[in-house]
Amino acid sequence: MSIDATAGAFQRSRTVPVHRALPSLVRDPVNALAEIGRRAKGEVVRLDLGLFRPYLVTHPDHVQRVLRAEWTAYRRDGMFWRPLRRMIGASVLGEDEPWESGRKVLQPLFTRRYIATIAGEMAKVITDCVSRLDEHAQAGRPVDGMEEMSRIVNRAVIRVLFGGRITVEEGERLAPAYDTAATSINFRLLMPFMPYSVRVPGDRAFMKAVKTVDDVVFPVIREARAEHGESNDVISALCRVGREDGDTELDDRQIRDNLVSVYGAASESTAMTLTWLWPLLDAHPNVAAKLYEEIDRVVGAGPVTPEHLPELRYTNMVLQELLRLYPAGWIFPRMAARTTELGGMRIKAGSQVLISPYASHRLDEFWERPLEFDPERFAPGARDGAHRYSYFPFGGGPHQCLGKHLFYVEAPLIVAAVLSRFRPEVAAGPYTPFPAASLRPREKVMMNLVPLRHAPGAAA
Asked: Measured between alpha carbons, how far is 185 from 213 in angstroms, rounded to an integer?
């Protein structure tokens, strides 16, 4: 279905007035944007929020133009990106030279082939982390799902990014600091027009978190520089830039900015996505039963290894549907670098454009029963002929997330490691989205982990 074919019928953008848009956006911005997109049925919608009047773009045709076909006209700049810059700096998540140089160095380290070479070590780290949940399970103590997913993912990602240079203690400082930064930025994201001369809720916590990240990362960078090693971890690769070919080397700040950016994409996003899985399985016992059966058959008592991944087909379908409903990158703001046309609308230079996978993934025109959790949508052949940009949890075009292949190795390893040992019982919801930098449940996801009889350490 193409909307641009009839764009001539829409010469003025549909505008949602401030008295209708603002209350729902303040109360529940994630679902408010999705509902506005569904009602507009793919039309470009302008949100009248007084001083701030962004365009909401949800139709796959338009998303494709913004993220791919005309990506140079829509930059990762403007009011939404300004708060994030204080954490990620000038990096692969930016534009122009910092993005180009960072992408050139980092892309070879996030290919499917490279991730396969480190999957074995990652599986061992994950198995070790999950085994530490046995104590809670045996004692009947509930665990915080978000905290545990963050702990497991953090340990695995640190091994990949930092080559083991960060101690467990330092890693346990890094993950909470990044989490604090991701959540304390909320007010700035919702009120991007607020000047930085005015202190708002979250500013102090954010800057304290940035300092903690710097205190952990900069000493590790200096250590890696002194080693002059040839390791394939990300920090070593960044330190080697320019050393062999005589090109300009990255300074410590450039390495720090890229490292922090990749860390967030590889750890924060995966942990938050997996946090949503447990309430969904609890609410959909038929899906849970099918997932448990596959993991019991393929992995058994474990430990899980990369050799199991090709056989975890339904697990992969569950993860794809999880990413459809709860993409960690729930919003991709862009700023029009020049005056353009989109869906028959004139988008003036400097205008803010909001791309939301969360909203696009809920369009009735492209998804049957879009609000339901149904992994069969991703059965082999089920997506044949579907619009490429009706599903884009990792973005698209030149700025597509580098961590895509890492997610599809790391996430199924974690899910299989947990479910080969335990059956989670989750406290009743509802669980609602919290609009942080990465989408997460507003409520705590508390789980009781029931040990399986065949799991190591289970009671006889």
From this structure: 15
* Phi, psi dihedral angles at 17 (to 5 degrees): -65, 160
CA dist 118 → 9, 124, 412 (Å): 53, 10, 15
Q: pTM (2 decimals)?
A: 0.90
User: Model confidence over 344-372: pLDDT tens digits?
Assistant: 889 999 999 999 999 999 999 999 999 99
Residues 236 and 89: their CA atoms lie apart, in Å, by: 20
Average pLDDT over the chain, rounded to whole?
87
User: Which value, in Å, is the radius of gyration of the alpha carbons in the chain?
Assistant: 22
pLDDT tens digits, residue range 180-192? 888 887 777 666 6
CB atoms within 10 A of CB 217: 22
- Reported as half-sphere exposure (CB side, CA atoms, 13 A), residue 17 has a value of 2
Cα separation, 248 vs 112, whole angstroms? 28
Task: Please list, in sequence order, all residues whose beta carbon lies within 8 angstroms of the beta carbon of residue 307, skipping any fewer than 6 positions away.
Answer: none
Phi and psi (nearest 5°) for 410?
Answer: -65, -50
Burial class (CB in 10 A: 0-12, 13-18, 19+), 417: buried
Report DSSP state, residue 49: B
Residue 277, Cβ density class (10 Å: 0-12 exposed, 13-18 middle, ≥19 buried): buried
Query: Which tokens belong to 59?
Result: 């139709």
CB of 236 within 8 A of CB of 224? Answer: yes
Average pLDDT of the residues in 411-418: 97
Paired residues of 448 in beta bridges: 425
Report which residue type is found at 121: E
Would the CA dihedral through 340, 343, 344, 346 be positive or negative? negative
> Shortest CA distance to 302 belongs to which of 131, 121, 459, 148?
131
User: What six digits make up the tokens of 150?
Assistant: 């963050």
| CA 421/CA 99 separation, integer angstroms | 42
